[in-house]
Amino acid sequence: VNIELIAVGDELLLGTTLDRNSNWIASRLTENGLRLRWHETVGDNESDIRHQLRRAWNRAEVVLLTGGLGPTHDDITRPVLTRFFEDDLLFRDDLMEPIRERFRARGLDIPPGTEVMAEFPVRAHPIPNLHGSAPGIHYHEDQKQLFAMPGVPVEMRGMMESYVLPSLMEYRQDHYGFRTIKTTGRGESHLAALIGDPLLLKPVELAFLPSIDYGVTLRISATADSKQQVNAVLDQAEEFLKQRIGGFIYSFSGKLLETVILDVMRQRGLKLAVAESCTGGIISSRIISIPGSSDVFERGFITYSDGSKTDLLGVDPAIIATQGAVSGDVAQAMADGARQRSGADIAMAVTGIAGPSGGTSEKPVGLVYIGLSDREHSETHRFQFTGDRDTNRRRAAQAALNLLWMRLQETRNG
Amino acid sequence: VNIELIAVGDELLLGTTLDRNSNWIASRLTENGLRLRWHETVGDNESDIRHQLRRAWNRAEVVLLTGGLGPTHDDITRPVLTRFFEDDLLFRDDLMEPIRERFRARGLDIPPGTEVMAEFPVRAHPIPNLHGSAPGIHYHEDQKQLFAMPGVPVEMRGMMESYVLPSLMEYRQDHYGFRTIKTTGRGESHLAALIGDPLLLKPVELAFLPSIDYGVTLRISATADSKQQVNAVLDQAEEFLKQRIGGFIYSFSGKLLETVILDVMRQRGLKLAVAESCTGGIISSRIISIPGSSDVFERGFITYSDGSKTDLLGVDPAIIATQGAVSGDVAQAMADGARQRSGADIAMAVTGIAGPSGGTSEKPVGLVYIGLSDREHSETHRFQFTGDRDTNRRRAAQAALNLLWMRLQETRNG
Lengths: 414, 414
Description:
2 copies of one chain form a homodimer.
Chain A: E1 3-8, H1 10-14, H2 20-31, E2 36-42, H3 46-59, E3 62-66, H4 77-84, E4 89-91, H5 93-105, E5 119-121, E6 125-127, E7 136-141, E8 144-149, H6 153-168, E9 176-183, H7 188-195, E10 205-210, E11 216-223, H8 227-245, E12 249-251, H9 257-268, E13 272-276, H10 282-288, E14 297-302, H11 306-313, H12 317-323, H13 328-342, E15 346-352, E16 367-374, E17 377-384, H14 389-410
Parallel strand pairs in A: 1-2, 1-3, 3-8, 13-14, 13-15
Antiparallel strand pairs in A: 4-5, 6-7, 7-8, 9-11, 9-12, 10-11, 15-16, 16-17
Helix pairs in contact in A: 2-6, 3-4, 9-14
């Protein structure tokens, strides 16, 4: 079944409102075995809404529409829909009564103009609004369906859950499924080369979703005759990917890298300390953003000045003087110092030149050293990032977490 | 000018990715006096992309497209665009060279298949990619323009700022202007009540843009016959707002709170230290994200465990035992300790219960204490936030920066 979603609202096209509604609707459809095929945003003007309605009603079997059902002058969806379906608006006292009741319950007078929300198209069915005043509008004609809902998120969600999704269950494709696989440590092109021809995965489809913060996410999806069959082919594809790029996969369930790290460290009873210069708290903040991180995260040092590296981590000022604050030796001394002074089992340290200034020809902007220290072992890595200040800092944080995760993999049986 | 935006990507229609790109593009167009008229999302399949391209190229003068420019098999925008324009792809060594250079700079081999990104449509112009490999594609034909950009946000944003927006300036409506006014310390309803009837600002329009991180942003905008007239009415509106809510405005130029703080502290030669427990690095990271922050930011302590509060900040264990780690006394001792041990002029400290667990009836989730310490003065503030873990942490960071900014205002003549 072809499903189309039309979001109505000037605020969406002006960019003053981020359209979380459409994303939520899309994910709820997906979770129910349905797929959104087209999505458009149009402004609060009759001509654009009508054009899009005409197109959607021609090509889709199900049309969802959000926005413009309220009582103010800029809410034009109700009359526009009525004209589009060559229908008539009729005041319905049965729809006005719950609206009156809402105002009564709050001890408020009914503002003039509210009645317009109970003027309803004759041939349509009202969608009850559990969280607000304006009812939704459901047309079921020519073996097609249209559902118009308010743009207020809680009202729209209530209608989707209680009315729209149940009405769509007849179209449900039980045989579609997907999984999200999280990787880190290699870029998109590298992973693609390691995986080889994606046709080898058929009937499973493979998609790459890169991001700065969280490495490359892969999505495998499949359609088959039954849920079991979908799961079977997805299991096979997962096995295949494990063989090809298993060393770079940290999650088959969509978990964040910091969550996976915390789970492993908690299980092994390990404590973590972090020393950050250029990343300045990004790593600590990502870890502490996870509930329960206090079991593992011991402390963090944001040693931005040279003096603080010496005071807090015991970095020898002579190393800073000879090698520079951005150097492998300093990264190593920071990691060792953070571990020893905190009593943690593992420590990570980052020092680098985030930019935009501060670079030289020997030490250009984007140069970052990451040190890792545990009881048996120390290591330092050099990275050359090529982005702006923000990107370099976020990539450095991701690289550090990746190194920690790799180290935890190495010491799996330690 | 009619501008249309096509976002390409199955992940958008599946709902696995929230489309922040389209929102960002819309707001940047608006800020530049341009308006997005239509926006659609289509999946990674040639037929749907072509249909939408046909429609957009017919009705709009400017078509923006995001997504599907990468090197993997599911990136089909480049060949689909080429076929749509009845053009041919040609390998361009001048486009391959910067891609090779990117890999060389990182010391990586060039994975097979990367060359595809340098196969470029003959009649199109490449849009340089400052943050990634794949160049964007610019067609300028039939007095219309199409700009295709990658879906990776940082790459798309770089192309918009450096190439697309400058190319669109010829369509700019010079008689539109807006200003962004940043406030902190009061909520949206409070500010609205203080401002009064927004019609008093006519012909200037006032919009409220609340956000978790950065307080309430106000946008005033106006359309008039000339740039001077726009500026004159916006100046008037600014004056009006200064009178009504001046105490909560920290910037009339859209600057971030952390930038304003750094500017003031740098000017006065003051150094800052930060001690964070529940915020875990958010405050330090926000400050260090600003270039040149090293002049002011001395060091940060992420004292998540009780032991680290004592070791690093000298908090008396007896206070932690009697008052609890989340208490005004501990916040104060953390701030005092951070200042004294770092030698900074001002220190801030945050301790709280971010949630979801760890709350009690006396100390519920969302309780946060913030301490501030300078040479003359110490203060502690108690906050009760009501959001989830992420929201509580971000609001606490904002509240701390706000207190620091207020303190700097108080000591203006000190």
